[in-house]
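Researcher: Can you fold this with oxidized coenzyme A in place?
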Amino acid sequence: MSIKEIVVPDIGDFDAVEVIEILVAVGDSVEAEDSLITVESDKASMEIPSSDSGIIKELKVSLGDNIAEGTTILLMEVSEAAESKPQEPAQEITAVVEETPETKPAAQEVAKPAPPPPTPKPSPTVNIDEVTFRKAYASPSVRKFARELGVDLGQLSGSGRKNRILHEDVKNFVKTTLTSGASPTASAGAPLGIAPMPEIDFSQFGKIETAPLSKINKLTGQFLHRSWVTVPHVTQFDEADITEMEAFRKKMGKEMEREGIKITPLAFIIKAVVASLKAFPRFNSSLDNTGENLILKNYFNIGVAVDTPNGLVVPVIRSADTKSLVEISQEIRELALKARDKKLKPADMQGGCFTISSLGGIGGTSFTPIVNAPEVAILGVSRSKMQPEWNGSEFEPRLMLPLSLSYDHRVIDGADGARFTSHLSKMLSDIRRLLV
Ligand code: CAO
C-alpha cells in the first residue's frame, strides 16, 4: 500500500477549468475510471475519472477551484498491483457538451465531440424521453445514475449552478416520488406513454425562420411545464363590481397626479388578495416535498407577473400587508421598470406566496393562469367592462372586473375556491372592508 497523488490528466484545449462538483469523499473506495470531479469551462463540462483504484485519503480541491492539467485532485491509498497500472490517456476523459441556456451553438463547434448518447437500458417501469433526457443539463455520472433508477432527467430541474442537475436532485426526486406512492416518471407528469412530438421539417411547407428562445423564455417554459404537469389545476371564474373602487381611484389619482404618483387597479387588487389570504390561509401555503404536510405562511409576499420584451418575469412585493396603496403602486412601477431593463435581482423574484397576473391593461374576458408552484394559487385579472347588473328592481350600469383564480386541487377544494373569489369580489366591491 502507498499514497499516490491523483492529478488532472491532459484535458485537451482546456487550460483553466472550474470544479463544479466533487463526486467522491474521503474514505470512499473507488475503481479506476470512476468519476472523481466534474469541471466546467464556458464551453463544456466533463468528469475527470480516476487513474487508479484505491481508497481516498485526502481531497486537494474544493468547489469553485480553477484547475488545469497536473493539478493534484486527491491523495489515494493504492495497492502495489494497482500502482503499476499505467495512467489512463487523456482522450478517455468523458467530455460532454451540454445544451444549456449558457452554451452557445458556437461553443459546441470548438468543444470535443460529445460521445454518442448512451444506449438506454430497458426498464420495466419507466418511459424516458430520449430527446429531453439528452438535453438535460447533467454530468455523465448523473445521467448514468438516473438511467439506473429509471428517472427521466428531462422532468427534473437542477439545484446546481446554472440549474445543473446533481446526484442529490435525482435522489430527492426518487425519494419524493416513492413517498407519494407514484412511479418516478408518472408523478412528474413525464411522458406517461405519450409518443414524443415528431420532428418536422417545416421548410418543406413554406419559408421559415428560426428564432432562438430567450434565456427567460426557456427558464419560464421549464417552470410552467413542471407546474402544468404536476399540479392538478382548477380555474374558478368570478367577477367583482369595481364601480366604486374605480371612482375612488380616479378621484385619488387626480389628487396624486401633482406628486407624480399613479395608483392602478392592481394595487387595490393586491390589498384585496392579502385580505382574502388572511381569511383563507390555505391559499397562502405550499405542500412540502413529501406531499404530506402543508406549510402555512404568516407573511404576505405577492408576486406580480410582468410582461417584458424578453419574456415573463414575476417580481415579488414583499410584506404587502404592511404597505399602503401608494407604496404598493410605486413598488409595482419600480419592479416593472427594473424587469423591463433586465435589472431584477434573483432576490426580487424570491419568496412569493401568491401570484397575480394582470392582463387588464391589455384586454380579454378571462383566462386560465398556471399556478406558480410551489405556490398553490394564482389570480388572473382581465379587463373591466361596464355592463348591466340587476339590482333587484332594475338593470344598472356597473363596472365589472373579471377574475380567474387557478388553484392546486390537492390543497384547495372547489368550494373554497369559490369562497375565496367571492370574498375577494366582496373586498373589491366595497373597499371600505379592506380597512376592517
Ligand atoms: N381593467 C381595465 N383597465 C385596466 C385594468 C383592468 N383590469 N388593469 C389596468 N388597467 C388600465 C390601467 O388603469 C391603465 O390605464 P390608464 O393609464 O388609463 O390609467 C392601463 O390599463 C395600463 O395599466 P398597466 O398595465 O400599465 O398597469 P397595471 O398596474 O395594471 O399592470 C403590470 C402592471 C406590470 C402587471 C403590467 O404592465 C403587465 O406587465 N401585465 C402583463 C402581465 C402578464 O403578461 N401576465 C401574463 C402571465 S401568464 O402568461
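Model: Folded with oxidized coenzyme A in place. Residues 376 and 411 are 7 Å apart (CA to CA).
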